[in-house]
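Quick look at the format.
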Amino acid sequence: MTTINHTAVSHTIFRLLGIPGLEDQHVWISIPFFVSYVITLLGNSLLTCIILTKRSLHEPMYLFLCMLAGADVVLSTCTVPQALAIFWFRAGEISLDRCITQFFIIHCTFMSESGILLVMAFDRYIAICYPLRYTTILTRALIGKIGVTIILRSFCTLFPIVFLLKRLTFCQNNIVPHTFCEHIGLAKYACNDIRVNIWYGFSILMLTVVLDVVLIFVSYVLILRAVFHIPSRDAHHKALNTCGSHVCIIVLFYSPAIFTTLTQRFGRHIPPHTHILLANICMLAPPMLNPIIYGIKTKQIREQVVHMLFTKQKS
């Protein structure tokens, strides 16, 4: 009889706690969140503006970078303002529909970024292994189709999770110890069997993000093999230098995510606030540092930034 009463009640309002155990430090924790968000918005907006307004940068590599910058802004905007509202105003109340929407956009954007990084690896492979056919292979029409395919892949693979969550009855708890909504983090409060959610979530992770990592690795194996067949050492250096920025961003994007996944799976003795801080680093660090890395390591972008800033100062 008790079970029937519990399962008859399904929470439609949840409360995000932020970082449990560090509530008294929320104001201080909000400072790096706010600073990183401002840098993310300014850096990625400047990068996008430079790429779109300078015809010399209308090359495949920079167009893919522009896509990445747009995804970075979306990813940060879906997470940081919510976290700041919790830290500053304790405004953690969120409806089930809004929670599912937030989860969907976050994961869709994350998966899209992974796809963009894969395409950028393919771009570097074509540029180094088939330099004479680079512009004929990666036409603007193909780049547009690639962008649409990346978005559709993310949308179609994640959309079923919306229905998998909507079918659940959330009768156990409505207090979520996090700064944003996650799939399994929300599903675990259901009284239903969530094995379908777990296995589907695991399957799309393996078939998208993990597969992207494998294909990126294969691309760079082929790139390195081609580079070391070039007789000139200067050509070696130049070819590897064109990949430097991309490799840094790949490491920056995937390393926190892999580390977070491993700590959640095996780090059962790690305090909960550590898990949540690591999850937030995945959302904060790459969007903030991506434009900085490309601005420092890519000569064309660096020159355009300097030209834009100094021209404005003189005028």
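Next, a different chain entirely:
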Amino acid sequence: MNLQLAEVEKHQALGVKPSILTLRFDHLQQWLKEQGEPSFRASQIYQWLYEKRVTSFEEMSNLSKDLRGKLANDFTLDTLKLITSQTSSDGTIKFLFELQDGYSIETVVMRHNYGNSVCVTTQVGCRLGCTFCASTLGGLKRNLQAGEIVAQVLEAQRHMDQQDERVSSVVVMGIGEPFDNFDPLMDFLKIINHDKGLNIGARHITVSTSGVVPKIYQFADEKLQINFAVSLHAPDTETRSRLMPVNRAYPLDQLMESLDYYIEQTGRRVTFEYGLFGSVNDTSEHAKQLAKLIKNMKCHVNLIPVNEVLERDYVRTPKEQIDEFEKTLKDEGINVTVRREQGHDIDAACGQLRAKERQEETRG
């Protein structure tokens, strides 16, 4: 039995219904076969889920009453419950959702001139302990099912439906480390990319990691044509270990070797996410060190003026210093951009809304 169908049975044994959105198209076909149903029903069910975006199995009117009953008996569609949302003056929307077990997660919709992007969460909390991130407050509670990640995109799309707009891209950069939840992540990617699913093109999907080296090799071997980003945040091991404890388990030299392997296997470039923290990693000398580290790689640097987090002590780098950092990299021949800030007037930092609204969940 495949992993996700095994997950379905595990939830059933606990008396908790798994989300139907957890099933990839081939997994759904297998489930239908086990129910004595023809495989073409999978296309019909996917159309109801991802094109018509129904909220109950009873709405699937071209299925038999018996099949609708089987679906309702084994699965749920009611995966996320909206707790609250915040809307920025620039159109950015942050949603705080409650899961079936009472835990909460964040999802963000960002509006760009090229379309609407959704940032999804992969875990309830995070174990990696990055010292600048609100997502790690309270540690890791659990991994999300693939369907709980898919549901975030669906809920964002339902919101977009009200404006007759479409989710055009997805970034896996919300709460949690995606590669710590690798198998559900892979299923999520295949579901939203499937032409009968949400049909979001591979090159409109971005996955980010903090640097879980063994999974980078595994991800490279998948040879997916999606965009790949790495949270780097420092050009040397000492500074990176202070910012990101994951660097102690997978040091910078090992990370860079794994990225060389990724580029070799996929032919795709790596985007380095580099948050600028005042007086920590933002000097011209840091920029020169960074340029030396990545000089010969197929890569791009995305400089991020950090959002201040009340629970953390880091401060924003002044704009003139950001400009100088960018110029230094460009002078060294590095492709670099400064991320356009969004949601600056709401709880925009990853995990910040959850930390404010769910204090009992995010205490250490």
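The mean pLDDT is 90.

See the schema section for token definitions.
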